Amino acid sequence: MIHFAHGEPHLEVARWTLPCGLDVIVDQDRSVPQACVSIWYRAGSSDERADLTGFAHLFEHLFKNSLHIPAHHYDILRRAGSSEANASTSSDRTAYHEVVPSNELSLALWLESDRMGYFWPGMTAERLGVQQSVVRAERRQRYENVPYGEERFALAEMMYPEGHPHRYLTIGLHDHIQGATMADVEQWYRTWYVPANATLVIAGDVDLAEAREQVDRYFGSFPASTRPARPDPALPPPAHQVREVTDRFAALVRIHRAWIGPRAFAADEPELDLLTQGWCSVGTGALWKRLVYETQLAQRVSAWTQNSRLGGEIHVAVDLRSGSDPAAVRAILDEECARGIDESSITRAATRREAAAIWGLSGLTRRAGLVQRYALYNADIDSLAQELRVYREVTPASIGAAIARWLPPAHMVEVTTVPASAAG
Question: How far apart are CA 369 and CA 417, in angstroms?
Fold first, then answer.
């Protein structure tokens, strides 16, 4: 349930832990007769072995059936009137959710319970082989045979040392995906998919007493489990590197710069987030105005941050207009990266950030995801007001300090993508 105190949003939830170790959070919202069931496992590509990359994502594909669900569970949900169901994998978690009519809450909980507790008895080598082919096809379709796919691999190789899980991206390597065995599947399931390593969020039109009874019914009999320790490899800042790649799918030259950034919810995360937003805002952003409007050197300017438990990344990508001088673009990037952004740009970016956060509270899936994010990184579920407060306190000086810490030229990596049609 959401309420506003002194103009700030607060989430009122019920939270408890089952004897099996499962973290349970209920967010009541009686405005629509629907319920979202979201379960996040603390298992992502950052937990993989260096010789078994892409496995968390492969397992996400496998985790669609169980002993008592021979058909795809999406088919069961659709017949029950589900309006939404999906799964995703990141470096830090594997997430599953479904939105069902509130009178079908027990079905959604049963599906998640059956997968959590009875996945392995329904697993077969044939299923593994099918999903290995699916995931490898996805790598080709979404990473390899797309414009600027080559630069993603190049940047990861330049930013992360051999053996670091972020070096291989969440999709992993073909040989590792194909080489996964049934023993690997069982070990991953029994290590990372235990109740103590998961958070179950129920958001929507639910009665708290009924939710407690149903959660206990479907998850209460699981044996006690222990949350596994997660690897935390050292991450030295990369040395300055510049690379050029040829891309047969790209139409424009792109200059893409990146730096290692802070971990999720660490100091300087808000500063770098607002900096990148302020740089590339259409019409007002400093980089956008100089590169797209004033000099017309660029077709498009993008900048963003991403933050995870092992560390973050800061990115700036510029798609050059045909015939533009890359050296002129680099000179402007150097100047703006050293300068930062002004007070008005910070205010606009912070306002957009806050508006997006408040708007996101209106949807059950988005709100469940917000609750899960806090449970994963911050422990305190009611952290939105504090997070927005920290964003409001960002100043040009604090952004300048963050730039000095995280964006030094000595630790910048740069990839220039050249379309194959323009390569010499």
Answer: 35
- Report the side by side order of strands in the sheet with 14-17: 14-17, 23-28, 198-204, 34-41, 94-101, 84-89
Contacts for 348-355: CB closer than 8 Å, 24+ residues apart: 348/278, 348/281, 348/284, 349/273, 349/274, 349/277, 349/278, 349/281, 350/274, 350/391, 350/392, 350/394, 352/277, 353/273, 353/274, 353/277, 353/388, 353/391, 354/388, 354/391, 354/392
User: CA–CA separation, 328 vs 295, rounded Å?
Assistant: 9
Q: What is the mean pLDDT of residues 234-256?
A: 96
Q: What pLDDT, on a 0 to 100 scale, did the predictor assign at position 10?
A: 82
Following DSSP, what letter does each residue of 101-159 receive, concatenated? EGGGHHHHHHHHHHHHHHSGGG--HHHHHHHHHHHHHHHIIIIISSTTHHHHHHHHHHH
In words, the CATH class of domain 2-219 is alpha beta
Q: Is 27 in a helix, a strand, or coil? A: strand
2-219 and 241-419 agree in CATH topology: yes
Dmax (CA) for the chain in angstroms is: 69
The domain limits of the chain are 2-219, 241-419
CATH level 3 topology of 241-419? Cytochrome Bc1 Complex; Chain A, domain 1 (3.30.830)
* pLDDT grade for 424, boundaries at 50, 70 and 90: low
Residue 207 structure tokens: 């009665």
Check pLDDT > 80 for residue 388. yes
pLDDT in tens, 16-71: 999 999 999 999 999 999 999 999 999 999 999 999 999 999 999 999 888 888 77
pLDDT, position 60 = 95
Q: Please, which residues bridge with residue 320 across strands?
A: 298
- Would the pTM of this model clear 0.85, i.e. be above it? yes
